[in-house]
Every structure is written in C-alpha cells, then in structure tokens.
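chain below, 528 aa
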Amino acid sequence: MASKGSTTTTGDEPPQQKLSPSGLPILKIPGSYGIPFFSPLRDRLDYFYLQGADEFFRSRVARHGGATVLRLNMPPGPLISGDPRVVALLDARSFRALLDDSLVDKSDTLDGTYVPSLDLFSGHRPLAFLDSGDPRHAKLKRVALRLAAARMRHVAPAFGTAFSAMFADVEAAMAGTAGDGVEFNKYNMRHMLDFTCVALFGGAPPSKVIGDGDDGGAAAKKALKWLVFQVHPIASKIGIKPWPLEDLLLHTFRLPAFLVRRDYADLTAYFAGVAAAVLDEEAENSDDNSAIITRDELLHNLIFMSIFNAYGGFKIFLPSLVMYLARAGPELHAKLAGEVRSAISGEVAIITLAAVDKMPLVKSVVWEALRMSPPVAFQYGRARRDTVIESHDAAYEVKKGEMLFGYQPMATRDERVFERAGEFVADRFVVVSGDEDGDGERRRRRRRMLEHVVWSNGAENGEAAEGNKQCPGKDMVVAVGRLMVAEMFRRYDTFTATVEENPLEPVVTFTSLTKAAAVAGHGGGEEA
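prediction:
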C-alpha cells in the first residue's frame, strides 16, 4: 500500500497525485521570471508606478487562478539587485514558513534582494542582517532584549513628554493656519526620535545635543537621511517628479555612502555619549568567547536598533494608526474617550502601561492597525533545504537556496483567517472580563487571530528570544501604540484629518482637534 506522498503505480493505473504531509496536492509553483533584465525592469515599474504594490500582487494571483504561492521578480531589480527572483508567499498559511527559523536563513535578507553598503554602518553588519544561527546574533540579541526589558518602565513617562510637546506644536501650528490643516507626520518625525532615544537610554534628547536647526528637526533629518540611503532602492513616491527621474535616481544605482558620512558621524557621536552606560555594562559582562563583540560594533548596532528598528517603525506606524482613527470617526472616538477616561480616573501626570492594559478597546485598535498596516510589509529568507510550502489549498516544492518572499498585508488580510479581513474593525480583538463567553470561545478566537498578526517577524502572542528573529522591541511598539491612542483621547474628544496614502507611510493632516472639557479648562470642548 502506497504511503501518503507516494507516486508508486501498478500496471496501467494513472500516477497518483503527490501529496504533502498534511494531504494537500503538491503542484508546480505557477508564475515565471520572464526575460532577464527586461522582465525584472518591467515588474519594477509595475510595482512602484504603474500598479502599486497591492495591485501588483493581486493581479498576479488572479492571473494564476487564485494561487497564492508564485514565482515573480521583486524590486529593485537591475542594476542594484544581483538576483530579483523570489517565490512569493501571499496567504496567511504559506507566509508562516518565513517565521520558521529552522526553515529559512535570514542572512542579509532584511531588505530583500539587495544588501545596503556596510559603509553605512561603519563597516559592521547589524543584528537585523544576521541569521538566527550566527553566534553574533545571539550575543547582540541578548543585549537588545536586556535593554528593552530594563527600559520598559521609562516608556510611558518618555512618551507622555513627547506626546505633550508634539501636540502643543500641532495646536500652535493649527492656530496659525488659515484652515489648511497641519501635517502630523512632520511633528511625529521630530518628536518620536527624541522619545526613542530618551526611552532607550535616558539623558538629553538628540534635538538638544545635535540641535533642532533653524526650521526644527535637524537631528531627525539626519536620521531620516541615513535611513533613505539604506532603503531608497525599495522606496518610491518621495517627492521626485516626474517618476521616471525618481526611478532612475532611486532604483538604478546605489546612492554613495560618503554623502551621508557627516550626518552619521553626528549621530554616532550622540549615541556614543548617551549609550555609554550600556556599552560599559556589556563590556563588563562579556565573559564568554562564543562571539567577540567589540565596543564599536555594539555601538553601531545600538544606533541601528534605535533609528532603523525603533524610530523607523514609529515613523511609519503612528501615522497609520492615526489614519485608521481618523477614518473611524466620532462614534469610535467617543467609545475610546470613555474607556480611557474611565481607566485613568485619578491619574494626573502620565498614563501608565498598567492603565492601558485595562483598556480592551484601545488594545484591540492597536492590534488591528498592526494587522492592517504592518510597519514592515515584507519578509524574506532563503530556504535552508528542499522543502514543501503549504498554502490553504495546495502545496509546492521549494529548493534549497531559493529566496522566499512574503507580502505581509496580504497574509494579515487573509479572508480564510479573518472575517471582513480588508476592513479596519476596531473591536476585532476585544475580550472583556465578565462577557458571557469572555473566558471561553472569544478568548480562544482572539488567540488564534493573534497568531496571524505577525508584523514583528513572529506571532503577536509569541516572544522574542536570542534564538529567533522576532523583534526584540515588540512589546515596546505595542505599548507606544496603546499610549498614543490613550493620550489622544484623554486630550481630545474627537478630531478630523485628511489622509494621503503613500507607499511608505500615509500622510495625515489634522483639520480639527476638539479638546476634552478637562483639558480645555472649561465646561465645553474647545476646537483647535
């Protein structure tokens, strides 16, 4: 008797369908890479300009009869990427292969099919570019985990200070406009860099040490410039027109690292001072010989973790979160304001992490925003061995060394996992103690859904560890999202904003902010 997966036949019987271990038919991966150079170039133009990312993937799924595991080319392609060919995993089930560290090697796959020049990191390879099996990975991840845990208690007060300063600036700017509105992203960019550095290291914020400049935000602009030099091959619509010129400048050649050397030197000098205590402590604790991490290497890793991982994430995530709140409108705003003000009654100075943990709707809103718009839309990894990848309806053989790619918004909006998957459902993850089934099916359903909220390179109900690639700052990012919502609706009853969706982050422009009565200082709300 043939076992599952066998293709043995007898006599004139037709060959049996080869099956995966779970009984799915193993099919040839659909799609093709086309003509070298020309097809990747056309795919790049489709992806960035002619279709956009969402339609790029949707159209190819439709072209192949709904198959969600496909062969295709990913930007940047010629001339930056040596090999643009990937196997795309575009549903929740197949995407999980990219979260299995035993299955995929993530050496130098952070940005996909190209690797930024190490000159941008003073010649060091940051933790995010190391595979989980690299001895240096465990040592650097251990530092990141210790730092995140030790500084967690500083997150709420640092964020409260940053939020107050940010929205004081927003309100002042709105008072000075003639109804044109005020862009949130500009103030978020400035103040969240200060927050990130103070939360992680304490001391003076970079705006005070590096300077704010004549028009404000000099430190943040240096950080942003350094980020652009890393990700420009996969960025688009950043203000260069016409788009063929942008494509030529951003996606055809690498911007030389020396153009950002002075800015990075300023950032390095700042972190060398503010992170000195961390560097000293790790030097004292370095008592094993599994991997020697020099002080200089650790310093540049701390810069990368702080600016690329943390600040870069907040710069993208918080505008997305505010976008969904703006679109939800006053009905959700009233519910959030009621929950927040009830939970913090008696608190005067800051909203604590303990307080936001008692806000089920606030928590749900943040998880839902992370599900709908994960800060990092892509995951890459090379297959460690020949393997079988399963989607919902079929399985596919992948060869050792092939690049696997996942487009996370399609995986986290999978209709086979989430009801109304393409909609922002504010209370999707709400579980309230005392519900009729609050400790039963509703809680189990939330746990199953959170397993597919994977913005952190792992399940939301999973934990970062030295031996995996899950984000060490996962809990901090979630906490900041909750604090953002809570602070918004302690300060304001409601707000309105316009949204311009862009590939990297939506541009949110406040058009009105209605202060809560207690904040306004009189019996009724006050509109900015």
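Confidence is low (pLDDT under 50) at residues 1-9. The two ends are 76 Å apart (CA to CA).
thats it, cya
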